[in-house]
Design goal:
The protein is α/β, with parallel strands linked by helices. Helices cover 23% and strands 25% of the residues. The strands form three sheets. Strands 7-8-9-10-11-18-19 form a seven-stranded mixed beta sheet, with helices on one face. Strands 1-2-3-4-5-6 form a six-stranded mixed beta sheet. β2 and β3 form a beta hairpin. Keywords: Exonuclease, Hydrolase, Ligase, Nuclease.
């Protein structure tokens, strides 16, 4: 069986005919396998959903318990149609997984979803999975993107808080995964006191605590008087009246896109923190080199840049041109 008979792009997303399922479909389908809980990969309305237990629980928090007709936790290798599928840690966010698809006859394909190889205190570490075809994202698939050690970025945050002790530091971070990682990085850097969080983060932070991730003391940033110097909020909050309750704040943002300083200036970010939950250029190229697949398929992001690198390395590659996925939510 040829690879494109096992998995190929459709308007609804990646489809596997021998298993009769889609991976991270962008519209409702009868059967979906979901890599992780971010909204551009995990949508409601499917007939049946298979994902890790944590991803299923995150989807229930975000969409309600009836987000799909049926759900099944991915525990161990499972038969789906004429394929065997297995889920492996991706290092991206809590519950994130790569999906390995092994047909009864044909090459093994690993769909990485979004993945990260920097140590992440709120996610199981990325696990290399041997495969014939590796499907990789290319969010930061250009040589300019070389993300620094997150601990160094937290040192910059702490230095700013010490330099401006009277100014609250408002840091934008995506509500699922990035916000909790930022809190844990702050704890590891020695910030032991209360951290204020926007109300939109509360339930997901509570869930991380329920899963055994100690985020330390958190206080709501919804009161008129916020006693914490460090405040974390989703990016959407910075365009609302909510931000006006803070006097002379230091505006920060945690994202791999903060590598592009012009983007930081356009957003009015005084303290850009280059912290990403995606592989950067050295990580994605190292991953491909280590896995040594016979072919690489490239999804959303800088597909052309990674295609060119694969060409120079003599690795067969093709872009999937999937639509509907955000490179990294801002």
């Amino acid at each position: 069986m040829r690879a494109d008979q096992i998995l190929h792009p459709t308007p609804a997303g990646l489809y596997c005919p021998p298993g009769d399922f889609y991976i991270d479909p962008i519209r409702p389908v009868p059967r979906a396998l979901i890599t992780h809980g971010h909204g551009d990969h995990a949508r409601s309305g499917h007939g049946a959903v298979m994902a890790t237990r944590q991803t299923l629980e995150i989807m229930a928090i975000r969409y309600g318990t009836d987000f799909a007709g049926q759900t099944q936790a991915a525990d161990g290798p499972l038969r789906v149609g004429d394929t065997t599928v297995s889920f492996h840690p991706a290092g991206h966010i809590l519950g994130s997984a790569q999906i390995a698809v092994q047909p009864d006859h044909g090459p093994r394909i690993v769909v990485s979803g979004d993945y990260c190889r920097h140590p992440n205190p709120v996610s199981a570490a990325y696990e290399p999975v041997a495969c014939d075809i590796f499907v990789t994202e290319a969010t930061f698939g250009l040589p300019v993107f070389k993300h620094p050690d997150p601990a160094g970025e937290m040192t910059r945050l702490i230095a700013s808080m010490a330099e401006f002790p009277e100014r609250p530091h408002l840091i934008g971070a995506y509500a699922l995964g990035k916000a909790q990682r930022l809190i844990m990085l702050a704890r590891q850097a020695g910030i032991d006191g209360p951290i204020a969080i926007h109300g939109a983060l509360q339930r997901l932070c509570d869930y991380h605590v329920e899963q055994g991730i100690d985020l330390g003391p958190l206080v709501p940033a919804t009161a008129k008087q916020v006693e914490a110097q460090l405040v974390i909020a989703p990016p959407s909050a910075f365009a609302s009246a909510w931000v006006q309750r803070f006097r002379d704040p230091v505006i920060g943002f945690a994202s791999g896109w903060m590598t592009v300083r012009a983007r930081a200036r356009q957003r009015g970010v005084e303290l850009p923190l280059v912290i990403s939950d995606h592989v950067d250029w050295p990580q994605v190229t190292r991953t491909i080199t280590e896995l040594a697949p016979s072919e690489v398929w490239i999804t959303h992001g800088a597909e052309d840049g990674l295609m060119r690198w694969c060409e120079l390395e003599g690795i067969p590659a093709r872009p999937l041109r999937l639509v509907g996925y955000e490179d990294e939510p801002e």
